[in-house]
Amino acid sequence: MERFFHPEIECASREEMTAIQNEKLLSQVKHVWENVPYYRKKMEEKGVTPDDIKSIDDMYKLPFLSKADLREAYPYGLLGAPLKDCVRIHSTSGTTGKRVVAFYTQDDIDLWEDCCARALTAAGATEEDVCQVSYGFGLFTGGAGLNGGSHKVGCLTIPMSSGNTERQIMFLRDLSATIICCTPSYAAYLGESMKEMGLTPDQIPLKAGIFGAEAWSEEMRHSIEETLGIKAYDIYGLTELSGPGVSFECSEQTGMHINEDHFLAEIIDPDTGEVLPEGTEGELVFTSLDKKAFPLLRYRTKDICVLSRKKCSCGRTLIKMAKPRGRSDDMLIIRGVNVFPSQIETVLLNNGYQANYQIIIDRINNTDTLDVQVEMTPEMFTDDIGEITARQKALVDGLKSMLGLKAKVTLVAPKSITRSEGKAVRVIDRRKI
Amino acid sequence: MSVKQISIFVENKPGKMFEMTEILAASKINLRGLSLAETEGFGIVRILVDDVYKATTLLKDSGYVNKISKVVLVPLPEDKPGALSEVLGILNEEKININYMYAVNGDDNMTYMVLKVNDSNAAELALEARGIHPGDQEVLTQV
Ligand SMILES: [Zn+2]
After folding, report:
1. How confident is the model over B66-89, as pLDDT tens digits?
2. What is the CATH number of the domain that holds B86?
3. Does the CB of A384 have a partner CB in chain B at under 8 Å?
4. Could you give the angle at which helices A165-174 and A184-196 cross, rounded to 10 degrees?
5. What is the pLDDT of residues A158-176, one digit of tens each?
6. Nearest neighbour of A381 by CB, restricted to B5, B41, B65
7. Which of A59, A103, A115, A292 is at 20 to 30 A from A227, Cα to Cα?
8. Total-model pTM
9. Range(s) for CATH 3.30.300.30 in chain A?
10. Whether residue A245 has pLDDT greater than 90
11. Which residue in chain A has the smallest CA separation from B69?
């Protein structure tokens, strides 16, 4: 039987949900107008005041916020509550430019942990479960979010953090963890390591996993489910909005339910900013309806996806978002073609390889080159050099048909590609532009 | 009767072969025969050793993907010109395909041809029937 953490919200009728959203939006716009001069200025420039916003139908009148705004406003420019009311910060990994620092009041933390508790419950967690949180703890939101959610559900929580793989596996086995939360690449790595230690999935009681914080494909899901003997659930979130739990997967696994009582979603045309109708692919934009310390309105995520209100078999009425096709940040442009690393991953898994790869892009004689380095595995190795080169050629062909690009495939030694225990480093771009 | 050969995946980069042979040498594994097949990006090193179990365990622990396969060890008496072509003739008559071959020295001071064929059992039976006795693992393990 399907369980819900907040049934009255998760299964609310459309009218009920709209009423909640309208009420919260009006007070949030007022809060931002009064407390966040940076955004107020943007509204004034657009000639909008809180009086112009009467319901969620007026969303389109509000200005957007982008990652560039967050960097410009660093560190306090978007703060919406006095620092004395703030109890914590989290920060993005900051691969480019300045880090983004997000602030939380105790209420903000509470609602975030509620969102994670809804996700865990959807994955089958109850107070009978033992939940191992193997996301990193610290500035990264993964560990703290799921840890808090797990407490709210009442699971026995193991705040494991990432790293020390053998100890991870020892705890999974000795403390009979039934649920694990970590990045998908780390889940895959744990599965590999378990196999090397001679453990089979039926020797650990794990039944479900919640994996997020990086893009992963359907094929990777199947491979994780098989090696760990679990059902693998996706979770989505952004530090800017709170962290994991903005949306989460249910048993149907056909998209992620957005916690839309807290985070109002829109899809826009990334070029014009125009709001697109439901079912159209575009850039995902979120408005935080409750958060007081870091109240972002119309934040552009750069994630490309589709929203759907189709009835879900789990009983939740929360709107669903498809797995983002890739963050426009992750998107590579190679010889003028858009390439998402997740597409390359799909081809590898379809051809029997594991998702241990690195993409090296370079520019030689003014032409972009794409080299996909793939680790050899015991399963794919044979004494027959012809067969190995034939499989290599099949990969090249698979990439060609998936991407429309000619790529080089280099087979490398096992474990020679650096594995980070948090986010995987998949792309090395050596082009000097 | 046939002999176990270990095939190892190595990247085609400077020093990679040396690294691998160093690991075996450090554990006193006696390399009785070696051949390398390479492509642009990678190679397959095929070795015959005195202790197959020890060598494969060591290679696996050191992160080398490897696989064991059967090869036929055919003695080539020095004082008998045309010995190799006689062997190849026999196999040809029996329609046995040879994938590759290389030479090693056995402990009995004999030169052996290592043959990778599509059907080791058939090859050995055919050779035995003509009075040629393929070598076994003993040839590689006597010290
Ligand atoms: Zn559902």
Report:
1. 999 999 999 887 767 788 888 899
2. 3.30.2130.10
3. yes
4. 80
5. 999 987 888 899 999 999 9
6. B65
7. A115
8. 0.70
9. 332-432
10. yes
11. A383
Sequence ranges of chain A with CATH classification 3.40.50.12780: 1-328
Domain that includes residue B89, residue range: 71-142
Tokens of A152: 């709210």
Topology (CATH level 3) of domain A1-328: Rossmann fold (3.40.50)
- Which residues in chain A touch residue B63, judged by CB atoms under 8 angstroms apart? 413-415
**A186-228 per-position pLDDT tens digit:** 898 889 889 888 899 999 999 999 999 877 888 889 989 999 9
